[in-house]
Amino acid sequence: MSASSPDETRLRLRAMLDAQFAVLLAVLLIAAAAGGGLVYATHVDPGTEAREETVSSFTVETAYDHSAEVTEPNSVFETGTVLDGRETYFTQVAPVLDVAVETTYAASSASDVDVRFDSVLVIRNVGEEGGTVYWSEREPLASEAVSDVEPGETAGSSFALNSSAVDATAAAIEEELGASPGETEMFVVTDVAVEGTINGESTSYARTVELGLDHGGDTYAVDDPGVWSDTAERTRTVAVERSYGPLRSIGGPLLLAVGLLGSGALAYARRERDLALTPAERDYLSYSDDRSEFAEWITTFRLPASVHERPEAEAESLRDLVDFAIDNDTGVVEDPRTGAYHAVSGEFVYTYRPPSPPAVAPEEGADDDPPAGDVDDADPSDDAGAGGDAGIDPDDRD
């Protein structure tokens, strides 16, 4: 039965696994241990971590609402028309600005909640960027308190501002002082206070909001800040089960599986498959390495029969034959018929016969032929027709 050459890659893999068996087994067992630790810490006993949990929240929103009624006849607006939510109003036809400040709150539960509003008009003269206040006048506008306000209910306070009167007050102060070194500005300040039992706890909230006014003679502008919103949360620290990302949740079991399966497969391969190479397999790999390394020094052609009539010396390895050929300035010839390697120098032919590839299980029905390496003893006279002593020395090849 004929034997086919084994897969050289498998031979080298076996050699590597045998040489590094202890290291590979240690690595796989460490991986299995690490994976087991990750699996236990992630899925079996993940432990706990402290987390802040919102028990209740309390939100307060405050906003200004402003409008002006047209009181003077004109060709554009009918008398009694209410102009609301504008940035600019007309002093001549709607001089009085009606302002309401409104507050609402949201909470899970509340009782005895009172909301108080204190609004004042501030007229002052300030330097550049408001750094210096040269004079300031405060005029109370309204102070109101609303009791028993429920969550979601709106509490409010209202007052009116006569733009002409406000402008006149500012002009009178400037005239009294005889100078106006900075810029005169006007705005409404409202202090909002909310007190009561909210979400089961005694709560006190305070916020100051402002509504800007800018008098320009025939018009006055309102700088509305919009809705002021504040939220206060009551939290508690709770212990929750620690959670991990997919890298650890999946990586732990995967590492454990790779470690266990890999170490098991490695131990099975060593026990059942015998990873250690036979001397013949090691010799074959050594020859294969030399053949690849010295390929450039080797030529392939059939030698004439006369070469084999010379005295023959045997080389222990292909490396030894190549070294000899280099030292003696001759070439190494691979005979494709026999697979042997020859170097001709002087009266001798120096020969290295490579090991036969280690046999593997033959296919069924294959012919029982001898290995290719055993053809070396064929009758050299078969090549007598090659003629002459060509190939005896590289210089005679021409």
From TrEMBL:
Pfam families referenced in this protein's UniProt entry, alphabetically: DUF5305 (PF17231)
Compositionally biased intervals (Acidic residues): 364-382
Stretches the record annotates as Disordered: 352-398
Source superkingdom: Archaea
Protein name: DUF5305 domain-containing protein
Organism of provenance: Halorubrum yunnanense
